[in-house]
Amino acid sequence: MEKRLQLFPHSTEIRRFDGVDRLAIGGCDLTQLAEEYGTPLYIYDQSALDAAVDEYRAALAAHYPGPAGITYAGKALINLAAARWAAGRGLWVDCTGAGELYIATRAGVPREQILVHGVNKSPADLWAAVETAGTIVVDNLTELERLAALADSVADFPQLWLRVRPGLAVDTHAFRQTGQDDSKFGMGFAEAVQAVTLCRTQGLPLTGVHFHQGSHFHDPQPIGPALDRVLELLAELRDASSWTPAYLSPGGGWGVPYHEDDLPHPSIDDYVAFLSARLAAGCAANDLPLPILHVEPGRSIVAVAGVALYRVGAVKRTSNRRWLLLDGGMADNIRPSLYGARYSALPVANPLRPALDPAWLGGPYCESGDVLIENLLMADVQPGELLAVPVSGAYHLMMSSNYNGALRPAVVWLQDGQAQLIQRRETVEDLVDRDEGMKG
């Protein structure tokens, strides 16, 4: 059980409250937070977010010989608080579509710190990006032609980067691979050559190249061949058109440990060190200037900062399983059902009590696939107890739903020993706010 504590934010400790040993994060009693805000409840520890950013910056400063920056991947978590935090730390904020752009601009993220992704940006997405973003990553030639048609409509037209498809993928779940030949994302190299020609012909501000191999990988080595291929493309583009990018982004996707079996996990420093050395060597081999390196972490910044709290409603035994039935599941965390993601958990009260036997943690929804955690050694947990699931900060809330009329959970932000509600729990009235009803 002690090893599971390593999955929680670094500020997590076991403190005595009302005569009971309980989990606390950032000095805040998780039981008290659950009583005040209800469950399921998502908690974000700002000190963990800050520590991850500091680790990336220290690694880039130590290993990359050129200028570098960080783009926070908003798809992992974006709301007003997260966007304000990212902007305040000097991060760029990656937005996908007009909705995330609206959140970023409402949060006050400066235009020059907003970058836009998207594999099939709608006309509304493109117009919002042109009006509010500093950089647009162009996915395909059709999109580039549409942007060219808008170029005269805005005085401060965004920088453009090309997303290319190296034809290789990292070792991760197939649904999280993005760089292979048959991926829906990005341009092939021949298309990229056409895109550079179009940008130069139209006078568009093309300044960068982006690629992304996939998400939640644990070994940086497979990035190497893809990076080599992209640098070879850049050398070809230089020779053909005298153009080289000021920015190069290899995307992100560095993984995190979700389960105690994932420990120890390679560090952010390991990832950045490999990436930096390979990029510097590749630029030297191809006689290319060092670009501004922009890494794009989302999960590895925000995942560990988030903890989900659930209350056990019932305990059930079948022939071969002990079920702990929770008040949340696939509606707030679809990842186990979608990817087979593996999690761990601890009781909030007396968290280090001895394990009893394996338990299956299931949610309340009408799907057999609504299983949050399988076959996890757990203590003798009783109905009414609170369970804390660490590493819950990335993608849960962004992929959440109202399945079975579920209400999206409240979200609390911890800073300097204080808890602040940053998103209220949905109400049943919210479920019908968009409905027009039937006439007659």
What structural class do you assign from the helix and strand content? alpha/beta
* Average pLDDT for all residues: 93
Please tally the β strands and state the result: 20
> In CATH's first tier, which class of the largest domain applies?
Alpha Beta
CATH architecture of the largest domain: Alpha-Beta Barrel
* Strand content range: 15-25%
Describe this structure in words.
By secondary structure, this protein is of the alpha/beta class. The chain folds into two domains: about 1-40 and about 305-430, Lyase, Ornithine Decarboxylase, Chain A, domain 1, CATH 2.40.37.10; about 45-300, TIM Barrel. Helices cover about 30% and strands about 25% of the residues. It contains 13 helices and 20 strands. β16 and β17 (about 370-380) form a beta hairpin. The chain is globular and about 70 Å long. The relative contact order is 0.16.
